[in-house]
């Protein structure tokens, strides 16, 4: 544990003399990763409340879909014509401009979260204090680790019976191998929860339940640790415990290492109760101080600085049917450099064509606003009449391409069968468009006689949405032949390595959209078996886009 209380200066600025430099410097962008029910919707609302983006919490209801049954979800999809997937919320707080990249609440759509993490500069790992680390959080944490994202931990629901704070910290350190840096520390939990000690400012924030789910900002009583009436304000036993805990934390030592935080090696840890608006502002203030501002992005022409005057960005997400009245598509573009301006003409790097970016939008829940300008770290919604696929780069000036966004191992596989051969063309068009949109991964058999695509998904709902949309949008009725596999691995050294390996037991060999080999295994045990039989066969849980 890395614990010494240190106050640091705001992140330094390299080139603030230009307009672009100043805009980049004040931007911070992040996505929240969590297990369903940990309080992501609640925390998002409260951050927006403190950021002044909403006046009263309760405005982001649409994201509550994770607890809906499939049928409710479908109905919702039909009624609103909206997919329950992420948008981006922007707000200003003090001198910063914050972009919160929202991710779907339903874990069946976590592929969407993986891609959103490709556009994020920081991640906030939200944990339920009663449950500790849960499966979905662990999975998403691994994706953050692969991307070396800085991770900020917010431990929520302290107003309810919780695991002990030390246990929670220990779990993060031991199970995720992540060093913690405690920024604030709880005084009691559950019915006994009395407040937080803020180690940055060395002060106590007294807890008050807000009532009405904290729709308004909480009152904030702040006192010094040696306040003369402390024993009247805090239970003496808990106060004593706090002093002991602080001694322990200080004893373990360690400096605040901002560089280690930015490399994703150390996580600053915060406690609080999002529902009661408690600890949210403390978190936001420290987060903005410690978080990574937009950083250089690797491209085929080397690293591109966010302050590079030539505009560039990449598409990380496509979204169909955002507006029920117009069955439209939006491409979400993460700006990586330069200044985005409405109606600007850019080069579409994959096709080499010039295109005008007209009607760019900022989407906030279900409202839209036209974007006039944007800078690195921002996300812009572009109208996409079929021009973009996920991973596309657009730029001005010297042509460059950002790397493709990899796919992560799906867990469910099924042949998708078309019931009506006369609809062959619509079927193929629908499958290919839904793949490009990232609704599902498509794998193909290596056996030419087996033409039906293999749908590969992270969750069952993805299958259902694909079938539903093929029916509604392309007029094609389909059925699924479920395959008995649950793990996919990409073969790092390609087809040659497969040939060299010879017979692979209990494995199905298929190819991905780049015709690269993918192995499907029934379970982890089969995968381990193949690994031990073929130690030279290098396998990857994420796809390897061609360079
Ligand atoms: P999610 O998006 O991560 O799935 O979680 P969400 O915010 O929807 O929160 C899940 C449940 O946890 C909600 O209760 C929410 O009110 C509750 N919750 C969130 N933060 C806190 C907290 O700090 N303390 C306590 N005690 N509860 C919290 P629900 O009963 O499922 O929904 P609702 O009726 O409250 O809306």
UniProtKB/TrEMBL annotation:
A GO CC annotation given for this chain: cytosol
Residues reported in the UniProt entry to bind GTP: 34-41, 102-106, 156-159
Domain of life from the UniProt record: Bacteria
Keyword Protease among record annotations: no
CDD domains: RF3 (cd04169), RF3_II (cd03689)
Major localization class: cytoplasm
InterPro entries per UniProt: EF-G-like_DII, EFG_III/V, G_TR_CS, P-loop_NTPase, PrfC, RF3_C, RF3_dom_3_sf, RF3_GTP-bd
Domain Tr-type G: 25-295
A GO molecular function held by the record: translation release factor activity, codon specific
HAMAP family: Rel_fac_3
The family this protein is said to belong to: Belongs to the TRAFAC class translation factor GTPase superfamily. Classic translation factor GTPase family. PrfC subfamily.
Alphabetized PANTHER family for the sequence: PEPTIDE CHAIN RELEASE FACTOR RF3
Protein name: Peptide chain release factor 3
Organism, as annotated: Pseudanabaena cinerea FACHB-1277
